From TrEMBL:
Matches recorded under Pfam families: ABC_tran (PF00005), TOBE_2 (PF08402)
Protein name per the record: Carbohydrate ABC transporter ATP-binding protein, CUT1 family
UniProt keyword Transport, yes or no: yes
GO biological process entries: carbohydrate transport
Entry keyword DNA-binding: no
GO MF: ABC-type transporter activity; ATP binding; ATP hydrolysis activity
Keywords, comma-separated and alphabetical: ATP-binding, Cell inner membrane, Cell membrane, Membrane, Nucleotide-binding, Transport
A GO cellular-component term linked to this record: ATP-binding cassette (ABC) transporter complex, substrate-binding subunit-containing
Limits of the ABC transporter domain: 38-268
Amino acid sequence: MANVANTMNVADAAGAPGATAGERAGADAAALAQPANVAIRNLTIRLGSNTVIENLDLDVLAGEFVVLLGPSGCGKSTLLHSIAGLIDVSDGSIEIAGEDMTWADPKDRRIALVFQSYALYPTMSVERNLSFALRINGTPKAEIARRVARASEMLQLGPLLKRKPAQLSGGQRQRVAIGRAIVREADVFLFDEPLSNLDAKLRTELRRELKQLHQRLGATMIYVTHDQVEAMTLATRMAVMRGGVIQQFGTPAEVYARPNNLFVATFLGSPAMNLLKGTLELRDGAVQFCTAHWRLDVSSYAFSEAPVQGQTCVLGVRAEDVHVAEAGSERAKVSLVEPMGNHRVIWLDYHGEQIASIDQTKAPLAEGDTVAFSLDAAHVSLFDEAGGARL
């Protein structure tokens, strides 16, 4: 990550002067931004000898809130920075609103970027931080005032306009950073882990405000995070990344309920999806998932290819689909109970396998108790054991 001074310069690069003041002012006043689609084709990015992203395709529709989700080092920030024009691509193309922007300067892409660091000018008031890019662009004063007033109202910054960044809380500073992006009225808004420096309460508050902001603006937003809660709550669609490759792209509900592979299955969810190794047995037209200790009928499962007798696989089931203290043929010992307020996570020791269950009952349970449990066969996932792909 660049130091703060460099980051501030880069953050304003999209608004740096590239034409005469009159041309810039006229264009700025005449054209209010429209949400734009982003189309990425066969994108490859190499940093030295390291290939960070290879042959990546991604389509972001106009007005969408797309979240790039993945662990550290998966390439999500690199992808975002390439859209912003801060990183040169090695191959492929980037289109914004149907226009090839692969080699365009950041200032010509009509994007606004919010960094992880607040990147505010410490000697300027909130009002001047918000208006800085517009002022150096030669935007008319009346237009600057309109945009600053609009952003201030959206983000509840009105009482803070005369303050310096040092007089603000962390959440207020991040609001100012977001506001500086809003005043540019860009076609595409890019967010690089903007909430990661905040405490849990502030993250929750700003996450809600970002969601509402997207609803009000109707703008195209691309957001990078490693936090699955942010991804699930903010995204209209999310791209789960690993090793520079998009593992799955879909709505949060789709990705959570039908993960494409074992990585996605275990990366999403808290606790992670339960995994059990076994084989498939075909008997009298029925398909059963079998382990050394039990069988589960999975005949209703939508297999992508016809199952094979004796096929080794992994069964995945979310913790909320493991039901404890109900009538069931299986019994296990409670190894741990984790109270979570409105629910609890019960860990079951089943023949050496640890199975998590999310339980919302108030039935008394203690470590060492033996309980009955069952799985909701309608909500299981089956994966190839060797490659990890969904069956």
